[in-house]
Amino acid sequence: MSVVRAAVVAAGQSDHGRRFDVSMAEIAREAIDRCLGSRGLGFSDVDAVVAGNMEMFEGIYLVDQLFVGALGALGKPLYKLNTGGTVGASAALACYHLVASGRHRRVLGVGFQKQSEGSTQSAITTVGDPVWERAVMAGAIGNFAAMASTYIAESGVSMEQAAKVAVKARRNACLNPHAHLKLPDITVEQVLESEMLAYPIHRLDFCPSSDGACAIVVAAEDLAGGLCEHPAWVHAVATAHDQQYMGDSPKRLAVMRSLQAAAKKAYGLAGIEDPRRDFDVAEIYEPASYAELAMCENLGICAMGQGGALIDQGVTLIDGPLPVNPSGGVLSTNPVGATAMIRVAEAAMQVMGEAGEHQIPDVKRALATGYGGNAWTDIMILARERPRPDAQVSA
Amino acid sequence: MVASDTWIVGLGEARSALARDDVSITELAWEAVAPALVDAGVGLGEVEGAVTASQDFWDGRTISSMSVNEVVGGTLGSEAKVAADGVLGLGYALARIEDRDQRLNLVLAHAKESQGDAHTIELAAFDPYFERQLGPDESVLAAFEAQLLYARGVFGAGDAARVVAAARARSRVLEAVSVDQVLGSALTASPLRVLDRAPLMDCASALVVCDGDRARGLGRDRVRLVAGASVTGAYWSQREVLADGGGAAAAAADALAVAGWGFSELDVVEINASYAYQHLLVGAALGLGEGEALVARFEGDEDGGVSVNASGGWLAGSAGSVAGLHAVVGVCERLAGRGGRALVHATTGLAGQSHHVVLLEVAG
Fold first, then answer.
1. Per-residue confidence at B154, pLDDT binned at 50, 70, 90?
2. What contacts B134, CB < 8 A, 6 or more positions away?
3. For A89-106, what is each residue's pLDDT tens digit?
4. Backbone angles phi, psi at A345, to 5 degrees
5. What residues of chain B, 297 to 336, have a C-beta less than 8 Å from chain A?
6. Is A280 domain-assigned?
7. Does B78 contact A238 at a Cβ distance shorter than 8 Å?
8. CATH number of the domain bearing residue A226
């Protein structure tokens, strides 16, 4: 049980895309200023900063130290995390722990990445074992291609069903002022006709490479209500990983052990019995179209093997029974250091009722996930209702 | 905020050396984790969460903790990584325990610096457009800072050399060196010489940390982690704040305020920085003395006062990310049986930009 109940009380994002008009520090600051400014806060109101960035992507070692001024961390504790695709969610979880422990009362989380200034795929290739893996599974695309092939074989999902996810994401993105890839007229046929990057992943099945930043403020319970009319209370945080070598955990997309484990922990903490019924919206970290379907299965949103049917039935559309990624998701915006924090921020915005044109009506409970190397999975569950004082929140 | 009821119940370290070519990063980490678990009397399956500390650039890969998370209980379990000294990781673990959900955490810091090229890595910490073309690395930046410190006329290169000699005399893994050897070693960036800097090492340190109830249940409530604090300083080019040690003093003051201790109540102070002159800078900022009196403290000539770097600290053999946690292990071992209060200081960043502090109380 937490000592102090904690809530996300503010969220801000930069405009995502190929941002040649700003530096890394400036794009981080764009998100921070929008986040803090939305509540009339300044750096002096922040007790500690948690920064998420994958520094090898831009090739800047100790990037948090270089940008200490832009991050507002001068004279304060600065926790720099770089945990891969999850890093923004890992940073959000750290914000939660630092507040829930009573150590700090207002913590600023910042995730940022400017992929146009580096070679992301080169850096991601280094997650593989240099002898056994790097030559055959370079970058994120190769990894997801292998996983998607397995997923197709195991579940029978079709390329058309995956393409529907890609279409959904880019159309939803048109309602999100911050999103990178907005394609209002995209069709399933266009996805299937787009360049094959690595079988079965077409170019439009995969996430873009974005420049962008996201910031959130997590506050203690005695401050939250004064900062925000409807704070997004943290009801559960959970993390799980799989093994280092992909061969040690076969069928990684078909059977996502870490996602199942993290979901089991988080759902238990938050009292989620039927995720499709109990959540009003979900922001899922889906770098590839296939991943969203597999993740919905492994999160219990549908039965295993029914991911394809889920999209066919329109369950996860923005006007469906459980909208998934109304923001456009990772498929529309992917500044890696910020991407998982965007999931948390978007879930919080939905709970706070501040998601603008992609607001889902009457959101009471939202799910956010992060995903990355070692099948690293972070989950955060946010709700409009305050958790019980004695509730256990993290696992 | 009040003093923490968090305890260090297990210690473990890998065999450190200039190069551990016989092991992978994963194996090196396990060398530290395995004895820590045995020391605590717990199995890997009982670890509820882990925090690791390492740097991607030094490990030559992104998500450097992927190499170790299966040996810290991360497979289907919870692990998070800070890119900083392990003392900041310990501070994060403290928060994860204090919120009363993850009652037993494993903290691991690891580095295999023999695999990296220091100049190439450190060059990448500088602004890519305006600074890298000049070819700077940490030695150049440290030299700027040392020049500022020495220009005040209180300390000089000879004082820093005495700090190195004192540290190396206490080292378990590095050969002793004399003051003359330090002053006669090759110039890297004026006024600094090769032996002014801690050598690159391969090492790993691990702690098992838990809340009071669990520690007492394990019968291991001997070392209390009372408080932690961290302060980040300005980027190196802001010369007016370079070389003032203010971040270290502020972090120490924050931690002492939480503990409700006075600085004079400390029995042990361990300062960890990669260059000898930084020890003088931080020591002075902490109020350990000035001039000859401070240098003498590093040589162990204190007259019944606080013990300063009795382990030799980073200069006696450790690595970036690991040095602070290594010092925590050393303090726990040294105070076992006789008890005492300790402050362990550590740094992250070029020229010690970030300062991290933890306070320990060891039962007698």
1. very high
2. none
3. 999 999 999 999 999 999
4. -65, -45
5. none
6. yes
7. yes
8. 3.40.47.10
Cβ-based contacts under 8 A for chains A and B: 190
Q: Which of residues 96-155 of B touch A (CB under 8 A)?
A: 96-102, 121-122, 124-128
Whole-model pTM above 0.95?
yes
CA separation for the pair A330, A176 (Å, rounded):
13
- Three-class DSSP category at A313: coil
Residue B45 with chain A: CB contacts under 8 Å: none
Mean pLDDT lowest for which of A116-125, B30-39, B331-340? A116-125
Name the residue among A1, A54, A60 with its Cβ closest to that of B124: A60
- pLDDT, tens only, A343-365: 999 999 999 999 999 999 999 99
Q: Calculate the average pLDDT of chain A.
A: 95
Residue B319 C-alpha, separation from nearest chain A C-alpha, in angstroms:
16
Tell me which chain B residues have a C-beta less than 8 angstroms from the C-beta of A82.
56, 62-64, 81, 83
Site of tokens 């970290």: A285
Cβ–Cβ contact B233 with A under 8 A: yes
Residues in B closer than 8 angstroms to A373, CB to CB, are 62-63, 66
| Domains contained in chain A, number | 1
pLDDT band at A81 (very low <50, low <70, confident <90, very high): very high
Pairing of strands A48-52, A78-81: parallel
Contact B350 A62 (CB under 8 A): yes
Domain membership of residue A253 as a residue range: 6-120+208-383
ipTM of the complex: 0.96
Interatomic CA distance for residues B98 and A168, integer angstroms: 42
> Does residue B158 have a pLDDT over 90?
yes
Residues of B within 8 A of A374 (CB-CB) are 63, 66, 69, 74
Q: What percent of chain A has pLDDT over 90?
A: 86
Residue A41 lies in a domain: yes
Domain-embedded: residue A127: no
**In-domain check, residue A221:** yes
Q: Where are the strands (E) in chain A, listed by range? A: 6-13, 48-52, 78-81, 106-114, 196-198, 201-202, 211-220, 232-240, 281-283, 365-372, 376-383
Contact status of B173 with chain A (Cβ, < 8 Å): no
Is residue B28 within 8 A of residue B202, CB to CB? The reply is: yes
**Cβ <8 Å between B63 and A257:** no
B188-194 mean pLDDT: 97
Q: Mind listing the domains of chain B with CATH numbers? A: 6-116+200-218 (3.40.47.10)
